[in-house]
Backbone:
């Protein structure tokens, strides 16, 4: 089979790479081409474009970069037609991927969507488009199956792929980690400011200023492999702040607490049983516009923005959003995480329940099986007719 896969972010690259790994186990003749990152490329995907060239954050930023986005869409369409895949697999990234899905459906290409767009949060009108153009939807949160059922659309819940990644990764001891990365012998607080330039610019200053309030701890930034090192340069000139690149899970495995930008990283911290504070703020004119538009669209639908809290349907970990994200507030929450034993224990206990809700291990394998069964059934049907 020929597979064309599109992942537009670091998390999509991770999950797509594990999906490819599992597809190859049962399809020895598999060929892969797509948009993504280094992890997909390591699994044998011929990379057309890297996700670092695709990630634009927020409504206003998308408008600002619209000419480049439209150029990418046009190129992607022509590349898919030239490749003629047996299936197009779309991984999250809805603004781009749903446009491609509409095009591919008209071209007669089978479409699988892995990791549903968050239509339950905003733009629920997209469900009608999904029903029209997506042949098979694979969801990773249990509540998504019930959400789609309200629209008479059957989807497959395969579980969250993060559970596979985290449980299958051996890491060094704390002493080895400190020695290898030239780190002092102090307890660690992880800083996960995101992978996009705008996220790093907006979140790291308040994380840095908070770190300076805790001199007996070392604060380590999880440097995104796709990010330029100069993005972090202004935040490293302090005795208790350092950075490691491409070692987020190893860092979390040795961390006492974490300050995390809203997104996939909030789930990653939870899967490592690291008590966390979820952070988000937009700055500048375009960022502020983006924030207020998003708040207007989803504020009445959702009480939380962190996936940990959304899945559990309650505040498991504290969220500091926009004007609430100050050094004073963040320092106060971090102090509780580091010093209040009962508070820490309650969060970690809730994480165990979260793990069970997410379906346990095997998501990538289950997703691959659903896709291969779908393709096989369609192939048999085509031959029969």
Residues:
């Amino acid at each position: 089979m020929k597979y064309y896969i599109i992942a537009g972010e670091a998390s999509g690259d991770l999950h797509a790479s594990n999906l490819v790994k599992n597809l190859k186990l049962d399809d020895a003749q598999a060929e892969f081409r797509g948009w993504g990152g280094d992890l997909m490329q390591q699994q044998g995907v011929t990379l057309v474009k890297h996700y670092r060239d695709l990630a634009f954050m927020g409504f206003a930023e998308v408008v600002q970069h619209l000419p480049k986005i439209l150029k990418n869409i046009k190129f992607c369409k022509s590349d898919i037609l030239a490749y003629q895949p047996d299936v197009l697999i779309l991984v999250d990234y809805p603004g781009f991927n749903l446009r491609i899905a509409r095009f591919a459906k008209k071209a007669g290409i089978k479409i699988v969507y892995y990791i549903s767009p968050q239509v339950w949060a905003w733009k629920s009108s997209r469900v009608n488009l999904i029903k029209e153009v997506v042949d098979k939807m694979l969801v990773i949160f249990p509540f998504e199956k019930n959400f789609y059922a309200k629209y008479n659309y059957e989807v497959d819940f395969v579980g969250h792929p993060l559970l596979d990644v985290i449980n299958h990764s051996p890491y060094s001891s704390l002493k080895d980690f400190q020695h290898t990365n030239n780190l002092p012998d102090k307890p660690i607080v992880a800083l996960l400011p995101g992978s996009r330039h705008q996220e790093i610019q907006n979140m790291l200053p308040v994380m840095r200023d908070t770190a300076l309030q805790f001199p007996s701890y070392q604060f380590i930034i999880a440097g995104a492999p796709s990010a330029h090192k100069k993005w972090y340069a202004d935040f490293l000139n302090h005795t208790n702040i350092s950075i490691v690149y491409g070692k987020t899970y190893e860092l979390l495995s040795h961390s006492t607490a974490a300050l995390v930008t809203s997104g996939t990283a909030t789930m990653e911290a939870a899967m490592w049983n690291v008590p966390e504070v979820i952070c988000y703020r937009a700055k500048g004119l375009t960022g502020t516009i983006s924030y207020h538009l998003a708040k207007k669209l989803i504020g009445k639908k959702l009480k939380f923005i962190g996936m940990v809290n959304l899945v559990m349907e309650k505040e498991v970990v504290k969220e500091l959003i926009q004007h609430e994200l100050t050094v004073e507030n963040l320092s106060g929450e971090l102090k509780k995480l580091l010093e209040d034993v009962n508070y820490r224990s309650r969060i970690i206990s809730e994480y165990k329940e979260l793990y069970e809700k997410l379906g346990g291990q095997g998501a990538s394998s289950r997703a691959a099986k659903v896709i291969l069964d779908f393709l096989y059934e369609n192939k048999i049907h085509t031959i029969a007719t």
User: Anything to note?
Assistant: The two ends are 20 Å apart (CA to CA). The longest helix spans residues 363-384.
